[in-house]
Amino acid sequence: MKSEDLIVGIDLGTTFSLVAYADERAPQVIRDPDGEARIPSVLSFTADGRVTVGWEARRQAVANPSHTVYSIKRLMGLGIEDLKDELPHLTYRVVPGQRDTIKIDVNGELLTPEEISALVLRELKARAERHFGFEVRRAVVTVPAYFDDSQRQATRDAARIAGLDVVRIVNEPTAAALAYGIGVRAGPTDRPPGASLPIGDKTQCTGESSYGPAAGDGSTIAVYDLGGGTFDVSILRLSKDVFEVAATSGDTHLGGDDLDRCIIALVQKEAREQHGLDIETPSSKQALRTLAEEVKIRLSAQRTATIELDLGAGRLCRRTITRDEFEAMIAPFVERTIECCRRALVDAKLGPADMDQVVLVGGSTRIPLVRRRVEEFFGRGPYTALNPDEVVALGAAVQGQILAGRRADALLLDVTPLSLGIETMGGAMGKLIMRNTRIPCQATEQFTTFVDGQTSVRINVLQGERELAADCRSLATFDLSGIPPMPAGIPKIEVQLLIDANGILNVTAREHRSGKAASIQVIPSHGLTREEVGRIEAESIRFARQDMAAHRLIDLRNQVEFDTHKTEQTLARHGRLLADEERTALEEGIRVLRELAKKTGDAEKLHAALDRFGKMTERLANLAIAQTLREDKAAGASSSGART
Amino acid sequence: MANGGRATAHPSPTAAPAKCATCESLQLAAPACTDCHELLAHVQGADYFELFGLPRTYDLDPSDLSARRLAISRNIHPDRFANSPAEMQSLSLRLSAAVNKAFDVLKEPHQRAAYLLELAGGKSAAEDKRVPPDLLGQVMLLREEIEEAKSSRDEAAIGRIRESVTRQAEQTQARIAILCRGLSSAGEQSKDELRVQLNAMKYFTNLMEQLGPSPVGRESLTQGGRTA
């Protein structure tokens, strides 16, 4: 595959992230040498400014709790007010940023969630580049279906900072449906091969025949996606080549993290009762977080699991948790997901019994209670042929293939999850686009002025279902300026709101009487301005240059190793062709170059030295080639002589 | 977006089906044609029926309308233009949004009727605001009954109210259908009645919303276009 044909699929998860691609055969996730596809979305910052991403960072979490950043997805595109319930659970420091944004304090350096997320994306990009051996620039990135405009923009900005061109933002449940629908073969670690959804012909769901585009027409599926931090449910209609979302619902702060917190709260209470101790230090909080996650996972397979936390000074907090107890704790969260399912069905004007399949996505769907409740609600067993951790990335890769123009047999039609409107006089929410409207979609609204000669109008764009503007989320304020001065009420400013295929809002405005396009300044409420993204991107290019310099140094050192070794071999074989001083000078040259390669951090200096060394070896190389040619000729002559 | 005035660019608006070359290219070919600006202007100026190559009539087959929308979407969706110049991408985005908007209006019987009234000219139902004389009092009573039934969780009562509202909504929609069919030759009087009935329909829709989803699942009203 060539670089320009490739659009990778990225599942940027709360807990784990993956990168995948699709070729002529099938979509596949890119694994590390150990066969692991998941990269933990965890970053560890050291005091000297280095950052590690992934498994290593996850392992260091307890040792380096306040400089380990995790679950950044739950902070994307949100303000400090939105996060007041979330922040007390985090072991790293979050401070208010400009407008209603936040920043992460890492060793005194303040980073936006977009910049943190970009570091995870960079790691995924690097993994793909190692796999292909060329630069990967274009990607499809998935987001929870219920992400609002700010959260989507923040994700896109993060990718831009990471040097990725986001060709499309795709909703996670939709991506999963796409992976199932086109019949992705299950991986080696999964259940039986052939994971195609039985569309139409229900006998097609197993065996080789299910591979490739599914045939038939018209089935309805529910995708239940409970991940590390977010929950989505989407109702889709599938026909032979169209994947159409009928309705979606969800909660962007409901996932495995919340279930872990039930266990954490229980152990904290226990520690207070047993030892009169509060678990407060960042490292014991972090240790508890890790243990809670382990216990949660164990309870999916076992009836009981025990947590043991060393509180220091020989005090041990020990607590055995039964599955029943765990289920009682998490039941309210599971019920919230079921409530979302109910809402999505109402919006789709369907009932639970209308579903032909229920697909489970996300690591948290391994929890027995979750499976049981989903089964009870929909009245049918869930379909789980593909690995719930990998299916979203696979679907994103397929969408990448479609967008690259290499696949024309599937079309995704999605919806906007939240109603969009404008703050009207008196602080009400005037809805212009209803939730679950098919995207791309548009709405136009007329505005006018209230004062004679007024040349600008400010519009507050909202997203949400509530009646009052104050209860909805403000996406941005748009300052329309350049309106020709006219008496009050005379200008007719037509504002067009357009939601694109990414679920992201675009606004244009025109003054009708003058025909002038009004200029718009967008002030995002919870994200970065275009200028801020541009600045960070420029800075990250500078960092990328530093990275490149580091790479260059490594390459040069390898070259030194190779060249000096080769010269030593040639010296051993043909050294007698040189004068003694020449030979000594070369031996000294080898020693000096190796010394420099070991010590210097200056790639330019090393490059120059390597160049000089190359010139020094020229005479020896020429003599060696001549000698070899002579020897070959002699050998050739003798062998030809032998033949005659 | 569309109005009677601009529709004159496409003569014989009531003839069936529209035979505009651009319409056909919209349905059959990707808009990678040479005249894509013309295409955008056409889509934004055309009436919703023309857009789908349908005659301007109340009675349409919802599944046929869906099939036509899909056929168009296959050709113009932004996913098909990810590698195209920015201008083409923007065009495909705007075209798709316009087609989706048109579909949403045509698929709902009462919105379709309101749109037909708009095309016929004169005041819209929303501008008119009049309703049948005894409706408001009846709606107020029903609202109270619903509140009461809901607070006492009287499922049987909710069911009864839902049945009664559904029946009235169906009767109203049937009357709307008859009025729409005669719209081309209609005088002011039947246009007036259509406005009144459309406004009444809005009240019934709100009442259905207040009642919440039917436990049965699929709602009959959404497919009600041809049952009238």
Protein model, in words:
The complex is a heterodimer of chains A (644) and B (228). In chain A, a hairpin with a 2-residue loop joins strand 16 (304-312) and strand 17 (315-322). Chain A is of the alpha+beta class. In chain A, strands 1, 2, 3, 4, 11 and 12 form a six-stranded mixed beta sheet that branches. Chain A folds into four domains: 3-254 and 330-413, ATPase, nucleotide binding domain (Nucleotidyltransferase, domain 5); 256-329, ATPase, substrate binding domain, subdomain 4 (Actin, Chain A, domain 4, Alpha-Beta Complex), CATH 3.90.640.10; 420-527, Substrate Binding Domain Of DNAk, Chain A, domain 1 (Sandwich); 533-642, Substrate Binding Domain Of Dnak, Chain:A, Domain 2. The radius of gyration of chain A is 30 Å and the shape is globular. The longest helix of chain A is centred in the last third of the chain and has 45 residues, at 530-574. Mean pLDDT of chain B is 77; it is low at 1-25, 27-34 and 217-228. Chain B has two domains: 6-107, DnaJ domain (Helix Hairpins), CATH 1.10.287; 122-223, Monooxygenase. Chain B starts with 20 loop residues before the first helix and ends in a 17-residue tail after the last helix. Chain B is built from ten helices and no strands. In chain B, helix 8 (135-151) packs parallel to helix 10. Chain B has 228 residues and is mainly α. Chain A binds chain B through residues 7, 167-168, 241-242, 345-346, 349-354, 399, 402-405, 411-413, 437-442, 444, 498-501, and chain B through 1, 70, 73-74, 77-79, 82-83, 93-94, 96-98, 100-101, 103-104, 212-213, 216-219, 222.
Quick summary:
By secondary structure, chain A is α+β, with helices and mostly antiparallel strands. In chain A, the strands form 7 sheets. In chain A, strands 1, 2, 3, 4, 11 and 12 form a 6-stranded mixed β-sheet that branches.
